[in-house]
Specification:
By secondary structure, the chain is mainly alpha-helical. It has 14 helices and eight strands. The chain has a three-stranded antiparallel β-sheet with strand order 1-2-3. Strands 4-5-8 form a three-stranded antiparallel β-sheet, with no helix packed on it. This is Site-specific recombinase XerD.
Length: 392
């Protein structure tokens, strides 16, 4: 009859026998972390000493050899942080920009609060208080800190360093409800007028304009594309001869620390590649840009520097701030045009079409972050109530 299987981390009956030169050997069966049962033995001068030596040896066997780490619950949090960053690189699932953002959030938001703590000392109450205190300063910073702290502690749980993730039990973050801002038609006209004034050369603010800012704005207003996606448009991505003219959104410009800006061959997410029909004003802006481009390669960027290198989103934002300051208009960012497009399409044709144009797979994202709520209820309700309750 086969011996019953031992639970992992336990040993069977200890036996002893006298071996050469008066020594005593104690041995037992021990089931290791990998499920295999092995013979463990120790020797000493007496049976009692041999059993004691064997038990010490057994207590020192690691149940967590599979984690390939020397971290324990008594390791400091900085050690876990470095281990987590190495694991991110091993998985290699994140884009370089997201990997860089995670490290920055961990080092600047989380590490200062946990640098002197061991993993054993990081409990639910401490994590809950930390996130709440950060949320008082900034909801966005608290949200970013929550993401990276949860990921790092989840790795410690998966590798059996700690038994549970305290971040799984903290209170939910609550954000004050806000309505996404979108430009009205008069505000769009004011922005266009300000850009024309700046590009005419009448303003002495900054370097001489090259006309691209106005064209970039028209393309954003005609496509819903993000600023990085617009700056990544190539000759081969536009077809202004078709009816209607079309634009393929298939890349974005990324900037990383210590590297020049370059084109990534997919938008923010790989699933958001799409081809959109262009309204007349956006198609005209594309034609104007094509007419002055020197580079004829299909891969040439539609919007670029004088040297043909990519424009950076931050550079365009800086130009737009300068123009808006001249126009005395506050709060206009490149993303405001994306919200403006979403709101206009939603009001005319509904949320599903607006989400499709923006490249969203879930309309909830479009509703929560891109649609300016129209407070005006359909006036047909007045006629309906008149019919129901008109005074005779």
């Amino acid at each position: 009859m086969p011996r019953p299987r031992l639970p992992i981390g336990t040993f069977g009956e200890i036996t002893t026998r006298r071996i050469a030169r008066g020594r005593v050997e104690a041995r037992t069966r021990y089931r290791d972390w990998d499920g295999k049962t092995r013979i463990v033995q120790a020797t000493a001068d007496t049976e009692r000493a041999a059993e004691r030596a064997l038990k010490v040896k057994l207590s020192e066997r690691s149940l967590f050899q599979g984690s390939f780490t020397e971290l324990t619950p008594d390791s400091g949090f900085p050690a876990l942080m470095e281990y987590w960053l190495e694991d991110l690189d091993l998985e290699d699932r994140l884009s370089p920009s997201t990997r860089e953002l995670y490290e920055r959030d961990m080092r600047t938001l989380v590490l200062p609060a946990f640098a002197e703590l061991t993993l054993r000392e990081i409990g639910v109450a401490r994590c809950d208080r930390f996130i709440k205190q950060l949320a008082k300063q900034s909801y966005s910073r608290a949200k970013h800190a929550r993401v990276v702290l949860r990921l790092a502690l989840a790795l410690a749980v998966r590798h059996e360093i700690i038994p549970r993730n305290p971040m799984d039990h903290i209170a939910r973050l609550h954000r004050t409800p806000s309505t996404p801002d979108a430009l009205t038609v008069p505000e769009v006209d004011a922005v266009r007028a300000a850009v024309r004034h700046w590009e005419s050369g009448l303003s002495r603010s900054g370097p001489r304009p090259d006309g691209q800012l106005g064209q970039i704005i028209e393309v954003m207003l005609g496509s819903s594309a993000r600023i990085g996606e617009v700056l990544a448009i190539r000759r081969c991505d536009v077809d202004v001869a078709s009816s209607p003219p079309t634009l393929r959104i298939a890349g974005t410009i990324v900037t990383r620390r210590g590297e020049p800006a370059h084109r990534q061959d997919h938008p923010k997410t790989a699933k958001s590649r799409r081809t959109v029909a262009l309204p007349s004003y956006a198609a005209e802006a594309v034609r104007q840009r094509l007419a002055v481009m020197r580079e004829r390669s299909p891969e040439a960027l539609l919007f670029c520097s004088r040297n043909g290198t990519p424009l950076t989103p931050n550079n365009v934002r800086r130009q737009l701030r300068r123009v808006m300051k001249l126009a005395e208009i506050d709060g206009v960012t490149p993303h405001a045009f994306r919200r403006t497009v979403a709101t206009a399409v939603n009001e005319a044709a509904g949320i599903n079409l607006a989400a499709e144009l923006l490249g969203h797979s879930d309309t909830k994202i479009t509703i929560d972050h891109y649609i300016r709520r129209n407070e005006m209820v359909n006036p047909v309700t007045a006629d309906l109530l008149d019919q129901a309750f008109r005074r005779s």
